[in-house]
């Protein structure tokens, strides 16, 4: 008995009476195959059948497969319709720029010429490279698309000045919708716009006055001492050959500083303790891809901000930080503790709430609003600070002469001011220029964005853009443009002498943004970076070691320029 004939009774048993039809069809197909001539009954039902068969199947196709083919055809039709609708939705706006006579990039280049908001293999900071390279010097602005949203890329620093500063009343927002209801930490200074932003910004700005910063120095100094001890410990470990990896080290440093000045807690990350705070911070950063994905999806449609399950993704970290803030505030209230940090300043703001007159645009300083601000400060102050200091050390290790000059300046200032005081750090001119140049060459924020809240006529043109447009200013590209910074790959802190700064347009260098919405913490960030760089250079000599990646390959998966294999440097005590 053949295999097939043995299988048939089994099939029949399983199908029962209902299977007879199937068995009959199998039999008919078999006999048709034998004679190549379908029986009349089958031909009849073929003609009556509404089923559409793919042409290559011909009329000899087995009737058994026809329902499946119908299903396939229906699915294909639905997919094709959906794709067509999607295409219409995406391309609806693609004549936005041509209608206005604006030079524009190929809108079909979602993943190519312009690149989408989501970096498919391209690092985020270099997304605007192709546009910038093609049009720099020739155009003041170019029209592009981020998914389906029209994006005006500004290539001229003077136009950047108009948008960021002169016409701020039209461009006060960043065009990023938020889900205040579900995402409790989204109600922060970076995200909100209009009068609410103005109200919050004016209340938070006093946090960063020189008087307040002066008081934060001792908090940072405590962490600096731990940093020095840890560098010494690691560099003298057996087999280390004096080499230390500074990416992780500086991240721990920045976490301990921001933990102390923003949340008022000792994280002890530098001591190697695996604490919840450090774990949470890393969790936030390991999800930078999700943040970028959210930005991209929102550029397709703002509703995505509500539809995507980001709430549950970020819930764990959100709840952790809200509880941390609540516990800290309650503990301080109960024990009457005052400390010169952000928590204390926000507790004072909460007290001032009672006196607030602008009740409409006023944001009450409850636990979650306080946490949202502290959380933003903390996100903004980790990788940006750690990487800028790391890149500075890397450059100084490559240029020993420059390093020696910087060390001489530090010792001179320490001597003059009797230690690492606020005034000593403030007067370290070369150290500041090194940080500024590091922010030029390796700046963490690749582009600035603004969204108009009313139609806006671009000066000296007839072009009017409306509220649907996003404006992007290519910071990374301008800071690497040889027109403004000759030999852009050369590390040269002298680009930031007063004399040299006057030679170029000030809006060609925007690491902290510009206009009323520039980085609120620029002074704090520069102080912290100068302080830690000066402390390290005062204590150690940094040189290139066998593990140093002198050519500095960047990790293209990160949101900001980050070294692929860390900042490995050889360290010795400075005599
Ligand atoms: C190297 C360090 C840093 C860099 C390069 C940097 C850069 C920036 C940039 C480019 C912006 C947007 C400005 C604009 O749109 O014009 C910004 C905004 C902001 N940054 Fe920073 N930042 C740094 C550190 C910090 C730190 C340490 C904090 C907090 C402690 C902070 C808090 C903020 C806040 C709250 C905003 C939003 C301001 C607003 O919208 O009113 N940043 N920062």
TrEMBL record:
Residues annotated for heme binding in this entry: 519
Main location: endoplasmic reticulum
Gene Ontology CC annotations of this record: endoplasmic reticulum membrane
Spans through the membrane: 70-90, 289-308
Lineage top rank: taxon: Eukaryota
Membrane topology: Peripheral membrane protein
PROSITE patterns: CYTOCHROME_P450
Record's compositionally biased regions (Basic and acidic residues): 1-10
Compartments, as annotated in UniProt: Endoplasmic reticulum membrane; Microsome membrane
Keyword Metal-binding part of the UniProt annotation: yes
Family: Belongs to the cytochrome P450 family.
Role played: May be involved in the metabolism of insect hormones and in the breakdown of synthetic insecticides.
Protein's name in the database: Cytochrome P450 6a14
Species per Swiss-Prot/TrEMBL record: Frankliniella fusca
Taxonomic lineage from the root: Eukaryota, Metazoa, Ecdysozoa, Arthropoda, Hexapoda
